[in-house]
Every structure is written in structure tokens, then in C-alpha cells.
Amino acid sequence: MSTTTNSVSATRSGSLIDPRGPRFGAAITTVVLAVVLLTSSSWLLAVQAIVFGLGAIVGLSAQPYGVVYRRLVRPRLAPPRELEESAPPRFAQGVGLAFAVAGLAGYLGGVSTLGTIAVALALGAAFLNAAFNFCLGCEMYLLGRRLFSRQ
After folding, report:
1. Of 55, 51, 46, which is closest to residue 29 (Cα–Cα)?
2. DSSP state at residue 79
3. CA torsion, points 132, 72, 141, 127, in degrees to nearest 10?
């Protein structure tokens, strides 16, 4: 992702994070959303929406997949070469939340096509991050920041 920095100090948009954490979370999200897509499980999508909501609203430190990464995975890895701002991945969690809520509305409202499309789009974005380290929501955040900082 293009928000990396070598500085360990906090940035103007928030704290710095290990970029491998959101990618780990995206891998779990990919599996969860694939199961939702295969089963049309509204309760599992609701759980994923809560995960997205915690990451977006409370912060990445409250995101359950990030907690698993920090407590169980991160201690077994070498230190990250670079850190990145937390704002873009946090924004991406908000985008995921929006798609999860749209999917829930579709499944619970009897419009399964809406649910399927919303989940498929969220799954695609999560897969891009997990497999290719390309965070679509993060790139949207950076594009928006560039567009609005010019005005």
C-alpha cells in the first residue's frame, strides 16, 4: 500500500500500524464472506458487520481479527520493515461495513440479489487485500484525501 512510512512516531491522521495486520484480517474476512456467499447466512454476515463496525468506529485496536493478529501471530514474526497510517485501513473497514449492511438489508428484506451482490463486492475487495496486498478501501481513502486537499 502507498501509505507506508519509516517513522515510528504518530502521524496527523492517527497511529501507525503493522501493515501485515490488516492483510491478515482481510484473509479471515475473505473466508467469512465466501461462506456467507455460499450459504446466504445473514447471521454470519451480521457478525462480519460487527467486526467491520468495530474496526471503523472504535478503531483498529478493537477489530477482532487485528487482536488475534497482534496477540497470536505478530509475536512470532520479525518486526515490520515499515509501518503505515491507520486511517486508510480504518476507512476501508467503514466501506466493508457499508457493504455488509447493504448485504444484510438484502438478505433480511427478501432481496437476496442485493445481498449476494453486496457480499460479492466486499469479498472481492477483501480478496484483493489478502492475496495481492491491494487495499481497495485504502486507495479510495487516499484518492479522496488528494481530491479534497486540493480545494
Report:
1. 51
2. P
3. 30
Distance, in Å, from the CA atom of 64 to the CA atom of 52, rounded to the nearest integer, reads 9
Instruction: Tell me the pairing of strands 4-5 and 16-17.
Output: unpaired
3-state secondary structure of 134: coil
Residue 107, judged by CB atoms within 10 A of its CB (0-12, 13-18, 19+), counts as: buried
For residues 44-57, b (16+ Cβ closer than 10 Å) or e, as one string? ebbebbebbbbbbe
Are 98 and 120 within 8 A, CB to CB? no
pTM to 2 decimals?
Answer: 0.89
* Tens digits of residue pLDDT in 109-129: 999 999 999 999 999 999 999
